[in-house]
Design goal:
The protein has 8 helices and 10 strands. The strands form 3 sheets. The protein has a 6-stranded antiparallel β-barrel with strand order 5-6-9-8-7-10. Strands 1-2 form a two-stranded antiparallel ribbon. It has a two-stranded antiparallel sheet with strand order 3-4. It is elongated. It binds zinc ion (ZN). The site of zinc ion has 7 residues, from helix 6.
Length: 242
């Protein structure tokens, strides 16, 4: 665990110079991972909440929080119960702050400029089994994360004036068959889609699903193509991501 914390170059992660303090991220995670009681866990939590991963006074979350999710989940799993509770609280704050952050984006293995809320939510879903067994707070965190859906296109076909996209849906599609606005990410760019309709929902716990995308050419959906909720990044799509 400590090796995994030290393997990250926290000072290389972006963040506002006056509030993101990379040393607090590293020291706080080390302290939380090794905490043996309530007081130590609380002290570690203060470092992480006071500029390490989030800045609770200003309600900001830093890209370091996305990097830290697997580490915090490991602390929930293996750490002192007080440290685990602190880690859950930090995840909850990070996702809540991120949901109100319309401009911060992070690079991920699946897309280059993902809204920070969706990047966090995706990593939180990576700990779904653990969180489901972590009481009411874990369950609530998972439910919040599921609102930030992600659709990975695997194949596309023409249909009417648009396309059908076959792929994998993670998270929860809002309200059954309703049409939602989405953001389509391909290498080098993100474009807004006015309408995405869940044509065939996932079944029996398998993520396979199909979206109907009016006005989109199948060529524009060649993998790797990933969709996120447009509401997570209002007004930001259309700009070329560098
Ligand atoms: Zn989101």
């Amino acid at each position: 665990m400590l090796n995994a914390i030290d393997a990250v170059d926290w000072s290389a992660l972006p963040g506002p110079a006056l509030r993101y303090e990379p040393d607090r991220a590293a020291a706080g995670l080390r302290a939380l991972a090794t905490a043996t009681g309530l007081v130590q866990a609380a002290d570690a939590g203060s470092l992480l909440a006071g500029g390490g991963l989030v800045h609770d006074h200003s309600g900001e979350v830093f890209p370091a929080a996305v990097t830290a999710v697997p580490l915090l989940l490991a602390i929930v799993r293996h750490g002192h119960p007080a440290a685990g509770a602190t880690a859950l609280g930090l995840l909850d704050d990070a996702l809540a702050f991120a949901t109100h952050d319309a401009s911060t984006r992070v690079a991920t293995p699946y897309a280059e400029a993902v809204p920070i809320c969706c990047a966090l939510a995706d990593r939180v879903r990576g700990g779904a089994g653990l969180l489901a067994a972590s009481g009411a707070e874990g369950g609530r965190l998972l439910a919040d994360a599921d609102g930030h859906w992600r659709f990975d296109v695997e194949e596309a076909a023409a249909e009417g004036d648009g396309a059908l996209a076959f792929g994998a849906l993670a998270g929860r599609w809002p309200g059954g068959g309703t049409s939602v606005a989405a953001e389509l990410h391909r290498p080098g760019r993100a474009v807004p889609l006015v309408q995405a309709v869940l044509h065939h929902p996932p079944e029996d716990g398998h993520p396979d699903a199909c979206l109907r995308l009016p006005g989109v050419l199948p060529d524009g959906l060649a993998p790797p193509a990933v969709l996120f909720p447009a509401r997570c990044a209002p007004g930001a799509a259309g700009a070329r991501q560098s």
